[in-house]
Amino acid sequence: MDLNLTPNEQQFRDELRAWLQANVPPPWTGSTAAEEKGEYFDFLRNWQKKVCEAGWAGISWPKEYGGRGAAIIEQAILQEEWARAEAPALINALGLYLIGPTIVAAGTEEQKKRFLPKILSAEEIWCQGFSEPNSGSDVASLGTKGVLDGDHFVVNGQKIWTSMAHVADWCLLLVRTDSNAPKHKGITALLVDMHSPGVTVRPLRQITGDASFNEVFFDNVRVPLSNVLGEVNKGWQTAITTLMNERANLGAGTYIAFRRNLDALIARAREMKRNGHTTSQDPLVRQKLAQAFLELEIFRLNNTRSLSKLSKTGIPGAEGSILKIFWSEYNQRFQQAAMEILGPYAQLHGFDNGRWVFDYLRTRANTIEAGTSEILRNIVAERVLGLPKSY
Ligand SMILES: Cc1cc2nc3c(=O)[nH]c(=O)nc-3n(C[C@H](O)[C@H](O)[C@H](O)COP(=O)(O)OP(=O)(O)OC[C@H]3O[C@@H](n4cnc5c(N)ncnc54)[C@H](O)[C@@H]3O)c2cc1C
Fold it and tell me: Which residues neighbour 278 within 8 Å (Cβ) at sequence distance 6 or greater?
C-alpha cells in the first residue's frame, strides 16, 4: 500500500486547495432550517453553481458530461480537502453522487444531455424515491404501481423518508410495473417531474427538529415512457447502481470531520472545570477521549486500505459495508461520550451553536440511512463469511 500522492495527485490537491482557500464563503450564521426554499437554500444553491462553474462538481463523471473523469484517489482528495476547508456541502448531493452516476450508467443519450448539466449546476434538485411505508430494507417488495397507458405510465402509491423531496424538481422513482413477475423482476425506474399534477409532498419532522425528509404521494401521476431509466421491468438493476453509489462512501472527508469534532471536544474538556479540576483530568473522560482517538485511527487506516484496494481493482467490495457499519456506530458512541463529558451544557442551543445536541440526535439516523447496520452485517455475513442468505 503506497500512501504517497503522485506528482499529478499533488498538483490536483494544490489546485483544489488554492481554489477552496480563495472561494469558500464565510460560515453561514442564519437559520439552517431545511424546510423550505429560503435564504439558506439559495446560499447552498449559489455555492454549488460556483463549484460547478469552476469544474469541481461531479469530478468522477465522464468529461463529455461535465465531469473530469477523476480517479478514486482524486475523489478522496476532494472529500478530504472539502472537509479540511470546512466548505459548505453541495445541496444537490443526491443528484451528484447517486442519481447522476445512475443516469450516466443507464440513461439514453437524450436523458444524459437533458438531465446531467442541471444536476451539476444545482439548477434542478433531485430526490430518491425508493423506500415505502412497508418496503425499506426489502425495497424490492415495493407496492407503488405504474400502469401503462399509451405512451405514459400512470403512477399511484406512496413513498416515505424521501430526503429533499420538499425542494426537489425531479425524483428517481421505483415503481412496480408487473405484479405477476417475481418481486425483483417487475420494477421500473422512472425519472419523475416533481411538479407534475398528482404529486403531494408532506414533510416529516425528525428528532433534531429539522424536516429534511418527507412522505410523497402519487395520485394518477403521468410519466412519459421517454423518462424510463434503463429498461421497463428491469429497474432493479438500475436501483442497484444507485445503491452501490450510495454505499461507496469513501470516508476520507468523514474522517476529517470526525477528527475535527474530537479535537473540539478535547479543547472543551481542557477548559471546563468539574469537581475542582479540569474535565480532561477526570480519569473516565480521558478513557473516553483516548478510545475515540483510537477508533478514529482504525477508521482512517481501514479507509486508506479500502481506497488502495479500490483504486487497484476498481470494484467496490464488502469494505464499503464494513466502513459504513464502523463509522455510523463510532459516531453514535462518540456523540454519546460528548454528551456525558460536556454534561448539561451540551443540551444548550447557545453553547457551541447547539452543535452537540443536534449532532447527538442526528446520529440516531446514521445506522438506518443508506442501509441499516443489520442489513450491512447480513452483506458481510453472506459475501465475506459465505454464510447462507438471510431469509
Ligand atoms: C435520515 C434518513 C434519510 C433517508 N432518505 C431516504 C431517501 O432519500 N430515499 C429513500 O428512498 N429512503 C430514504 N431513507 C430510508 C432508508 O433507506 C430506510 O429507512 C432504510 O432502508 C430502512 O428501512 P425501514 O426504515 O423501512 O426499516 P425496516 O426495513 O422496516 O427495518 C426495521 C428494522 O428491522 C431490521 N431488519 C430488516 N430486515 C432485516 C433482515 N433481513 N435481517 C436483520 N434485520 C433486519 C432493520 O435493520 C431495522 O432495525 C432515509 C432514512 C433516513 C433515516
Answer: 269, 270, 271, 272
Gap from CA of 131 to ligand 1 centroid (Å): 8
pTM above 0.85, yes or no: yes
Instruction: Look up 110 and say whether it is catalytic.
Output: no
Mean pLDDT calculated for residue range 106-113: 97
For range 233-244, the mean pLDDT: 90
Answer whether residue 32 shows pLDDT above 80.
no
**Confidence at residue 197, expressed as pLDDT on a 0 to 100 scale:** 98
- Most ligand 1 atoms within 8 A of CB, residue of 97, 161, 175 to mutate: 161
Rounded Cα distance, 326 and 335, in Å:
14
Q: How many helices (H) and strands (E) does the chain have?
A: 12, 10
Tell me whether strands 187-193 and 199-204 are parallel, antiparallel or unpaired.
Answer: unpaired
Q: Residue 133: CB within 6 Å of ligand 1? A: no
Q: Is the dihedral of CA 279, 281, 285, 291 positive or negative?
A: positive
Confidence of residue 304 (pLDDT cuts 50, 70, 90): confident
Distance 372 CA to ligand 1 centre (A): 6
How far is the CA of 381 from the CAs of 144, 317, 321, in angstroms? 31, 13, 11
Distance from Cα 177 to the centre of ligand 1, integer Å: 23
CA distance to 73, 122, 208, 311, per residue, from 2 (Å): 12, 36, 41, 11
Instruction: Decide if 135 contacts 187 (C-beta within 8 A).
Output: no
Q: pLDDT of 152-164, one tens digit each?
A: 999 999 999 999 9
Cell triple for 243: 445503491
Answer whether residue 74 shows pLDDT above 70: yes
Reply yes or no on whether the pLDDT at 247 is more than 70. no
| 3-state DSSP assignment of residue 355 | helix
